[in-house]
Amino acid sequence: MIGIVATLAIAPLALQGFWLGSTQAEVLEAMGRAPDKINSYGSNQQWHYGQDYFSKDEIEFRNGRVWCYSNMNGRLKVRSFKMPGKTFWLRSDQDEVLAANGAPVRVFRTDYLDWQTWYYGSGYPSSEVQLRDGRVHVYSDSAGRLSLPAPDPEIPAFSIGATETEVLGAMGAPERVYKSDYIDSTTWYYKSRGYQSVTVEMENGRVREYDNPDGSLRVVLLSRKKLDPKATRIQGVDMGSSLDDVLAVMGTPSGFKWDTPVYRDARLILKFTSGRGTSKVEFGCESEGGYLRPDRVVAYDNAGGNLVITLTPNGLLVAAKFLDSKAVDVSSKVYTISSARDFEAESSRYSSYGAPSKLRSYSGAYFSLTAPPMAENGSYYGEISELTGRPKTIYVRSYFRSDGTYVRSHYRSSARGR
Length: 418
Description:
This protein is mainly beta. It contains six helices and 25 strands.
């Protein structure tokens, strides 16, 4: 810390006070009086300013120099290093933190490793900065006292794969950062408007996942496909849909998470959240160059009612092929897929689009489909028939005539008198 004076070039008046590494004589000179109480532990000492247990301030010396201190009541004259307009970030050194925030109210240090925790604010919650080997490792700014980078108006949003700089530009610094001790992974926590956490997970310096339940993250995930404006049937999420298919229908998801358990294949899970709840779409994954790549939709859960679902026999065939199913029967209203990993559906709950509200890949299960809102020929439930003048309320499934002609599914009105 000897180089701080030269590094920061602070005016002499700001240098009054002591700091870590100061001698006992320098502390006495800064404080202007002896401590109210001294406790000795071998070569270590604790100096107490203030008699009351709950209002005293402490300085701990190791080998005659300041090791740490607690200035919760503001009696200690700790040196001020703060410089206007400065900010710090992960990997900043101690001088940069001091220039941005000044001296902390309390310093805690470990006995064996060069780890320190600096506390800003005497109440609860406080803001904390953890330093390892003299540089910022993680921090928590629950009290809002830290000087951290602000958003860059030139960066409107970020996406999956964005760099740390791009996320900082779009969002500014998070409220809290957690870093793994074992892999190059950090989780950024942003303030939420609700009780759920708003997070961005970085791995190897790039965005790998995010969770945005309240919509406060400025994140965009675009599809490389566009919906067909001339389509005669509803375009929605289907079993076997690609990631681009789902994004084209649903837009940017509120959550993007890789699920990599050891007991089954990896999945990519997209979340779509509204005031009604959270719906999920799961994709099977393939490994490419050591990285996971989403393949096709293998499960969904529309508990929140947010998904546009068009579950079709073709979608089931695609999904069955993806899952290496042995047989697919789509000849009746109950679709059965026989494989090592079949489909399980909660057939008692249906979405507004006529598909089961939940569908997952497990073994030995069946599910049934109600009529979709729009048939293959473009007719829909409640449409007024040009021939009868009555609403079309009867759904006719697609079928093959005896001569091999395919008849698309359609709605028709009921016979007269019914």
